[in-house]
Amino acid sequence: MFKVARASQYLAITGAGIEDIKLSKKSWVFPWQSCTVFDVSPVNYTFKVQAMSAEKLPFVLPAVFTIGPRVDDDDALILYARLISPHDKESNHVHELVEGVIEGETRVLAASMTMEEIFKGTKEFKKEVFDKVQLELNQFGLVIYNANVKQLVDVPGHEYFSYLGQKTQMEAANQARIDVSEAKMKGEIGAKERTGLTVQNAAKIDAESKIISMQRQGEGTKEEIKVKTEVKVFENQKEADVAKANAELAMKKAAWTKDAQVAEVEATKAVALREAELQTQVEKMNALTRTEKLKAEFLSKASVEYETKVQEANWELYNKQKQAEALLYEKQKQAEAQKAEADAAFYTKQREAEGLVALASAQGTYLRTLLDAVQNDYSCLRDFLMINNGIYQEIAKTNALAVRDLQPKISVWNHGGEQGGGGSGNAMKDIAGLYKMLPPVLDTVYDQTGMQPPAWMGTLSK
């Protein structure tokens, strides 16, 4: 019988004429031979492996492995056909076999690592598990096509990862508060620094502007002197040219005169002619000498004036530069002094505030101690504080000073020793005593206040 396997299947043939196992996609199967068809497509196995780290902290490792036979290796495929293919690849037997290999290798590897190493090195942990499991599966002709290790999960009653997440959240929140405080501090410091730099740059720009202005003025003065000097030299050259032309004209006139005189009286005027030639040469030399002298005088004067103006301009520019540098230095020192004063004032106020807070806290503690000592009797506490602080002594002293300043006058009146009997007599005596008491009373009022009694009551004799 001729059999053909599907694309994901192989034929495993044993029997007569075959030493071990023959694998084929299609083949003749004879009566004295046995043929088994097995599927080589991979299968997904989902596990939740419980393991324990080196610190003896249990955890759950969810994982999904895609495992199948190694189709590119004939020896591995024969192993799979011999050991696994007799069973259904999705049966409990195969599932337990694969799960046992994965759990064993995972637990051994986890026991050699700390929880922090497992959590932070998930990628390396996955690779280690993958490699060790693959070594064990090679003896069954199986290969791992894909391994997906999910996030570690806490075992009920051991919430390590939950606590670790809470710790990370709290650390992030605290770090955020610290960052906000530091950013606020840097912002305030940066604002103060920018203000100081603005003042310094403004003073520097003002000083540079003044220096540039003085340089421009010096350059303008220098150019003006240069132009005047060139004009003066040009005028001197023109005057020399005029003098030279005049001399040449005089020479030509003398020559013409000489020729005329020679033509007329050559014999008789030879001496005169020679004298005229000598005289002409003398005048020419005198004219050249005067020209050179004038030229030298004017040129020397112009050079002296130019050098003088240049020196004055340089000196004035130097003074302005030094003044600007001194002003800039003074402004910088003033800014530094103001900053130092502000820092000192801030520190002083801060220390005063801390002292007041400490004093208030100490006084509050002292009052609470006294109040506990008198069993919350506020009247007793008030009397103690007034006695302890000398309030009663101050009140007595103030009253004594007030009475002393009044300077009262005391008058003693004697009504006599009249005695009588009878009811009507006693009544009249009381009325008489009242009238007798009025004069001393009115007299005392007058002495103390200066007020006179009404006219209808009479007048006091003084």
TrEMBL record:
Keywords assigned by UniProt, alphabetized: Cell membrane, Membrane
Primary residence: membrane
One Pfam family per UniProt: Band_7
Annotated Band domain residues: 18-184
Record InterPro entries: Band_7 (IPR001107), Band_7/SPFH_dom_sf (IPR036013), Flotillin_fam (IPR027705)
Compartments, record wording: Cell membrane; Membrane, Caveola
Classification via Gene3D superfamilies: Band 7 domain
Family, similarity comment: Belongs to the band 7/mec-2 family. Flotillin subfamily.
Protein name: Flotillin-like
